[in-house]
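Colleagues,

For the teaching module next term, I've prepared a clean inverse folding example: a structure given as C-alpha cells, and then the sequence designed for it. I'd like students to try predicting residues themselves before seeing the answer, so please don't circulate the second half yet.
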C-alpha cells in the first residue's frame, strides 16, 4: 500500500487477493468523478460524493464481484477514508463540524460529522429492499464504517424514514457528501487547528 499527498490532494492504492484499487481525490475540486468499480449502482453513489462534496474523485481497479460486492465496497471505503485523511493533513483551518438533513422524495436522512481525527460510525436505518440492482443495501453501513474509521471522522447517519431503497441510499450518500464538504471547508477566521488541545 502506497500513498502520497500534495496540498489537499491525495492518492492511495490497495492490493489484496480479493481487490486491487487506486483512488485519487482533490478536496478542493469541482465535483468531477471518474469511477469504475464494476458495481454500477455503487459507481453512481460514489459519483454523488464527488458531485455534492465538490471533490474530484478517481476510482480505478477491480474486485471479486463474481463472489459478491462486499470486498469491493469495503476496500473502496478503506481507500477513500485513507485519501480523505491524507488530503485533510493536520486539519488546520478546517470548519471541523457540520450536520444537515437531506430530503429525497419519500426519504429523509440526517448526517452529522466531526472531522476531528477520531474514526467512528453510528448508523441508524433500515432499507426495505435487500438489493438495488446488484448492490446489497447492507453494504451501505460497511462502506461508511470503513471510510469513517480510516478518515478519522466521527460520522453519525440516521435514515429517518423512506419507502424506496434507492431514494434512501442515495440520500445517505448525498447527505454525507454535503456534510463532509461543509466540515472540510477552510474557515477564513480559523488560524490553526480547531481544538483547545492544539492538535487533532
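(Answer key — instructors only)
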Amino acid at each position: 500500500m502506497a500513498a502520497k499527498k500534495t496540498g489537499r490532494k491525495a492518492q492511495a492504492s490497495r492490493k489484496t487477493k480479493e481487490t486491487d484499487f487506486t483512488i485519487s481525490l482533490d478536496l478542493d475540486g469541482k465535483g468531477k468523478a471518474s469511477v469504475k468499480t464494476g458495481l454500477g449502482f455503487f459507481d453512481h453513489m460514489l459519483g454523488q460524493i464527488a458531485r455534492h462534496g465538490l471533490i474530484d474523485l478517481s476510482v480505478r481497479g477491480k474486485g471479486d464481484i463474481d463472489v459478491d460486492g462486499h470486498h469491493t465496497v469495503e476496500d473502496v471505503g478503506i481507500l477513500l477514508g485513507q485519501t480523505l485523511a491524507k488530503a485533510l493533513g493536520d486539519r488546520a483551518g478546517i470548519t471541523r463540524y457540520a450536520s444537515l438533513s437531506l430530503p429525497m422524495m419519500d426519504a429523509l436522512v440526517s448526517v452529522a460529522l466531526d472531522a476531528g481525527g477520531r474514526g467512528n460510525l453510528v448508523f441508524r436505518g433500515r432499507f426495505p429492499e435487500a438489493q438495488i440492482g446488484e448492490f446489497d443495501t447492507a453494504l451501505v453501513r460497511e462502506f461508511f464504517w470503513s471510510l469513517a474509521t480510516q478518515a478519522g471522522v466521527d460520522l453519525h447517519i440516521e435514515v429517518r424514514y423512506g419507502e424506496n431503497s434507492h431514494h434512501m441510499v442515495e440520500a445517505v450518500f448525498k447527505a454525507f457528501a454535503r456534510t463532509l464538504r461543509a466540515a472540510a471547508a477552510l474557515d477564513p477566521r480559523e488560524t490553526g487547528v480547531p481544538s483547545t488541545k492544539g492538535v487533532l
